[in-house]
Amino acid sequence: MSSEPTPAAKPWLASEAEGGSRKFAPAVERNRDVIASVLSDILPKQGLVLELASGSGEHAVHFAKRFPQLQWQPSDADPHALASIEAWREHEGLSNIRKPIAIDASAPAWPIDRADAVLCINMIHISPWSATEGLIEGARRLLTPGQPLCLYGPFLQAGVETASSNLAFDQSLKARNPEWGLRAVEDVIALAHRHGFGHEKIVSMPANNLFVALYV
């Protein structure tokens, strides 16, 4: 994300007694398997997956276990998240997950020059639009034809009634920060097309979320 999130925006819980630096995000346990199910049809058979805004790091270690043939590169802009990711990496002892790197999605340059897929879960709605712009621009620099940028989270969608829970969530986000809020998936896709992504796949997910794969 473009800046360190406020405490109210961090979706994780500290576990000082058991986990040390490891954080626990309750949403991860609820959504990791359904996300992995979609990823299994989209990710390459081998290569490097860059995850932006990895948060607690729980998704990264879960997917590294689920897809052992892939190398996983977690990242975040928040030092607390980076510490949690590294703690999870050390705890799990997985050989196919790299040390986390600091990436501000909105920055004009990232400390990585290639990836075979880019994944971003639950960032777009809790960051300024500039972070989405940076995410798409940065992913396009890394990806080659046929490779995907994978997004997951709550979106607004034309012609689809927005769940009352998502409307309330959108209002609560904007109350915290006027630059946050649920984005129209059509706006995200239009932005991607302007930056060289050619087509997309949208999958409806549980709990009023969408999975969006944008292909170069």
UniProtKB/TrEMBL annotation:
A Pfam family that the UniProt record links to this protein: DUF938
Region named Disordered: 1-26
CDD domains: AdoMet_MTases
Organism: Neorhizobium alkalisoli
UniProt xrefs under InterPro entries: DUF938, SAM-dependent_MTases_sf
Protein name: Uncharacterized protein DUF938
